[in-house]
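User: Assemble these into one structure.

Assistant: Restating your components, then the assembled model:
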Amino acid sequence: MKKKYLVLLIAVLIVTYGCDIFNTNFEEMEDARMYEAKDLTDAPIPDVLKIMTWNIKFGGARIDFFFDGWGDEVLMDEDVVIENTQKIAEYINIVQPDIILLQELDIDSKRSAYVDQMQFILDATELNYGAYASQWKADFVPSDGLGRMNSGNAIMSRWEITDAVRIALPLIDQDGLTQYFYLRRNILKTKIQIGDNELQVLNIHAAAYSKDGTKKEQIDIYKGELDDLNAEGLIFVAGGDFNAIPPNSVNWLEEGFPDRPDDLGEDYEVEDYDLTDMMEFYEDYTSSTWYHPAVSLGKYAEEEVENNYINKCYTHTIYIDLPEIDWNRKLDYLFTNNETGWIANSDSTHQDTRQLSDHCPVTVELEW
Amino acid sequence: MKKIIVLLIISFVILSLSAETAIWSKGTTDVLPQGRWEVGIFQPLSYGLNETTELSTYALADLVMPNITLKKFWKDMEGWKFASKHSLIYPTILLNVIAKEGALGILPDNSVIPQIFVLSNQFMLSYRYNDYLNIIPKIGFSVALVSGDSDFPTIDMQFIYNRTYVYHEGAMFNIGLDLRGNITPELEYLIDIDKFIMDKEYCEFSYEHKMMIIWKINRRFALSGGYKLSYSDYPSKMQKSTNIIPLIDLQIGFK
């Protein structure tokens, strides 16, 4: 009789936990998806590396999507996706980064007409190699008309990516069904061979709508990965969309941001930004390991004025339908543990990209 | 034109002179005996209207997707039996129900759903080789009559995409072949393959295959189990083209 119950229990467990019929799950660590441009471009070994990070909002530009909290758009037509992604590629071609960290890039999503933006951007720029890690994957999301989804983080490079893994991050606290179909944040960790030397490049897109401290936990795990590399004596560049503001921000209460729509849905409320989220990355706040930021806190503070919301270092604004509102918070960062840091004053926050995404790119240069 | 209509009527009357009924006869050219009801968990509620005609409907679905199917046995022609099925389906209510925000929003909330009436016609021949083998070739077509503005996406899920694509394209053809027969007097097998012929821009092919064992326990109960396999193109080039699902059903019959 006990054996019968054991079999029944195992069957229930298999049905409950073993069935991933919509293919939404990931291993704790797994290989990233590798890409290569259709036509490879010559990539001589440089003296200076230009690094970029950019959340490209899956080529959605400034369309008001329902998941922004106020819009009603769900799916884009293919020509719209291609036009928007082409503009992103054109901007990349103007800036000419050597390595780029992208967030919210779709490779196989109904919402972006199944355009593989990874391959599209590689083919439309001088970047040759790519690694991709899904952040939101499901054969079918039975909610809001989303349908099939595969969106995530990417790292693209002129030089070959010799290793790339996806490291799973903790999930935010939700009911089981919602969590099953929800975003699964991750760290994309790669090695890029540039001449005789190897560079570690890491990308993160931390939780946006976390109210349970998961975002901080994710950022701390990311920092831990960097500390491990640093302890091994490996040189890295790391960045991404941390969904966190700098620790010396003056304007930081969520309700205070001028682009917050009155009718913002409850599901899109974020926890108030916490000034401690990013502290451990900065020399100014930690006595242990810190890293060189692309944009120093000093430079950030120079323009930070309470209730002004104008700062040349801001990288994000959620709402575009108000002409008087510009970028109003910084969420996107780049760091390195290179001994001499970044090349002085080589950083740039590209605020002229307001129509391309709800984030603007940040670039910085590293002596190589 | 009148001559054609008269000839068709005469043909139907002549063909209707014969009858072939059987219980647990879903998917065959036979119809239910007059007055018999059958229903399954995943099978429609069917009723033997007379010795040549069977009516069926997916009763639970009727609330949001009214549907009715008439199956007609026409003629036994030297061992070849001929039957046809004609279905009328009105999916508009269901499509409006699933076009919503939040959970179970299969379609976007801003979808524009037109009035859609789908007329599906299936024609079947059946040849009894022996007790163990019946060969049933099928051919059919579906036509969607669409009225009003239409702006809603395809549903890119296995087993659903090919069945709902007609709402967008207006017509779809299908061909298939069933093999079925007795293993024992109580046990029957069914092996089938179907091809859906759809729009070539996205979906050059869609095949489905099913294998089932049907246990005819008695006149009141039948239990069936097996699998269904689909092999199909989808709008996404990365979407896995092969899918398999288990099939299990309990059918109940009355009279």
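Confidence is low (pLDDT under 50) at residues 9-17 of chain A.
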